[in-house]
Amino acid sequence: MEWVQTIAVVLDSAVRLSVPLLCAALAGLWSERAGIVDIGLEGKMLIAAFASAVAAFATGSAWVGLGAGILASVMLALVHGFAAITWRGNQIVSGVAINMLAAGLTVILGNAWYGQGGRTPSLEGPARFPDLTLPLGAWAREHVPVVGTIYDEVVSGHAAPVYLAFGCLLLTALVLKRTRFGLRLRAVGENPAAVDTAGISVAGLRYGAVIICGALCGLGGTYLAVSQSAGFLPHMTAGKGFIALAAVIFANWRPWPALGACLLFGLLDAVAIRLQGVIVPGIGQVPVQAIQALPYLMTVILLAGFIGKSTPPKASGLPYVKER
Fold this sequence. Notes:
The chain is mainly α. The protein is built from 14 helices and 4 strands.
């Protein structure tokens, strides 16, 4: 049954690696469903990772770090919202500026405060989220062949932000499809003039979506620094915000297909890690750089294959100007 254990370990790694992507993809979905294109997912995750690591190190509490990460990300999201909604600026330019600001600010502050080249000190003990063991994990592994092992490895044994991320997925799918707020939000992304005619604030709904986007990026960034890693590293998001945007496009701006795309990217990352140093018959040892490039190559392939087939919200990226 060694092959079952190997598959379970790879799937467990895929889930862990897909969580930041899932948070960022849900964030982009909320924002773009309301008509706000957000290229700044990467920057918000990065600032959240830095703020959460700083707060967790200072207080010794991972939960305080989560709050700080979400707060920092929401503040940066509001900057984007102010530029894109209030001032009706170019949303792409605003998002790129946020990415550049976060990349530079985190390194400068980290180096000034800790003198470690932009890194924060290592987080230990309660400053990191521990893995949670769900009920029946060990019993299922022992008494239920195959399924029990997968349950114990893949479903159980993750940190709290992992379960929060999947809870946010369920909540997103429910709210966008089943609630009045979700209906109005989707309407704002399709026809803001009709929403305005009905007496509903277009700016208010879009700001709400931007804040939710910031909170989700905050969760993803905090997971990177306070759970997956033991502190902040410069540029530790490594393009995950842009991969999440590709997942949103691939999923045609729907939550459940977005989960599938994120799990696919996570699986590619997990397989890439397992393949490092492995000798492939007829090829030899595959270069590490080629293996690490697999998720990014898949991003390009998905964008090339699906970007013309996906249909974004009609008002996405368009500032709303109220008719007089």
